[in-house]
Amino acid sequence: MDATEQLVKKIKGFGTSADAIKIQANLRDVSSAKHIVDATVQVFVSIVHNLANNAGEGDIGSFTKTFYVNVRAAYIMTEKIAPYFPKIGGRIINVGSIAGREGLPQQSLYNASNLRLKVSQGAGLAS
Length: 127
Prior knowledge:
Elements: H1 3-12, H2 30-43, E1 50-53, H3 63-81, E2 91-94, H4 108-122
Parallel strand pairs: 1-2
Helix pairs in contact: 2-3, 3-4
């Protein structure tokens, strides 16, 4: 049992209202967002109240990999899950590194991608 499966088991152990599933996906691939949303809606319900975008890529040699995972994936996940949000309410939480605020030495791509996610959230990424 890997760490994710252990976490799912722990969450399910909290009681009848607690549930979790493990979904493996590569957020560099656009179709993964649809796969994640479809699996979530199939197991749980047709209305989703929260989305937490918490993926991170720190490949300092690849602009595409870093921005696809750290920025583009948040946009795509938001777009795919939006139809399942209630008409009023729901939350989208975009989690980024402190690198978006303070920057890390020799990590300019990673810093920029985290800053972009922070700026996007402030500008209404989910609106």
